[in-house]
Amino acid sequence: MSVKHAKPNFSPSQVSEIMKRLYNLTPSEIRPLPSYDDQNFYVAPSEGGDYVLKIMNTEDSKNTTIIELQTHAMSFLHHNGVPAQTAVPITSGQLMSLEEMDCGYGCQKYVVRLLNYLPGVTISKVPLTPKLLYEAGRMAARMDEVLQKMEHPHLSILQRDNFIWSLSNMLLLEGYMSVLDGDPMQKVIKSVIHQYKNSVIPKRSNFRECINHGDFNDLNVLVQPDDNNGYKISGILDFGDMSSGYYVYELAITIMYMMIEHPDPIEVGGPVLAGWESVFPLNEDEKDCLYLLVVSRFCQSLVMARYSVTLHPENEEYLMITSRKGIKILQQVWELGKEHVEKVWFQRAAQFNK
């Protein structure tokens, strides 16, 4: 975010007023939920039901077209059997409202949506068995396959050329390197960027294009117990990072975030890859770039977490969740090297599919 006060800071009484005015619902329980740069509340109205009130930050709220497209994508996935949230219409029939509110630093405009509450806990809270990792890979691939069939008059706005979280824009990290001054990780990240320039960019033209969710992380994937003493995926949250990209990007992002939660991170890639390829097999160039794309996502996460802490030091604990674990994993994966890590991933995937 480019400004200090982009993140909303609505009070429970403001949330209650919005719920009554926009949705004609009276909250009996309001509870804050974690969020990176928006504000989310669990709301249980006395009329029944469970909802999430999502209040977008001021910067993203300036682009209502892309939020409308994200809301459409969630509904499209839901209707095609992928467990995404859907938006509840306000009393006037629209799916979102632009609210002007003073959160303590003057009146600002925030996009507000009420989403249905999906059951389950985040995948970060349960053991990441090979079966569940396989399911995560399969679900991520299925999601991208469905999104690629979606039609919308404004799909072109997903070509987000300067979007810092797109793996196509890895080189934009060079402008943020100062947040790592004096940190030994700066050298590693500069090496990754150099390898990305030399090894990924020349092969990108052979990647298959799609629409990426872009943030299939351990806090955005919900699970519920299944009938076999394991877990199944029950929800995919947060479509704020949707952009035009490539199938292999989604796979790399999924592997990276599942590694964060696993006691032996190197073991994650095989089952996720096997699940992914059960839906969408990779071509040779995609396979060859997968390792670098995974480490590139680690770099994006680490650099942008550090940068966000400079803007929001009060939110450091949440912002640095991925970063603290990620530093150790990135060091380990980078030291092991591409050949070793790929061998583990591709051999495990082949064994899984036997």
TrEMBL record:
UniProt KW Metal-binding keyword: no
Aminoglycoside phosphotransferase domain sequence ranges: 29-276
Top-level taxon: Eukaryota
InterPro entries in the record: Aminoglycoside_PTrfase (IPR002575), Kinase-like_dom_sf (IPR011009), Pseudomonas-type_ThrB (IPR050249)
Pfam families: APH
Signal peptide from the UniProt entry: none
Record keywords: Cytoplasm, Kinase, Transferase
Subcellular location: Cytoplasm
Reaction equations catalysed: (5R)-5-hydroxy-L-lysine + GTP = (5R)-5-phosphooxy-L-lysine + GDP + H(+)
UniProt EC number: 2.7.1.81
Keyword field contains Transferase: yes
Function: Catalyzes the GTP-dependent phosphorylation of 5-hydroxy-L-lysine.
PANTHER family noted in UniProt: AMINOGLYCOSIDE PHOSPHOTRANSFERASE DOMAIN-CONTAINING PROTEIN-RELATED (PTHR21064), HYDROXYLYSINE KINASE (PTHR21064:SF1)
Family, per entry: Belongs to the aminoglycoside phosphotransferase family.
Protein name: Hydroxylysine kinase
Taxonomic lineage of the native organism: Eukaryota, Metazoa, Chordata, Craniata, Vertebrata
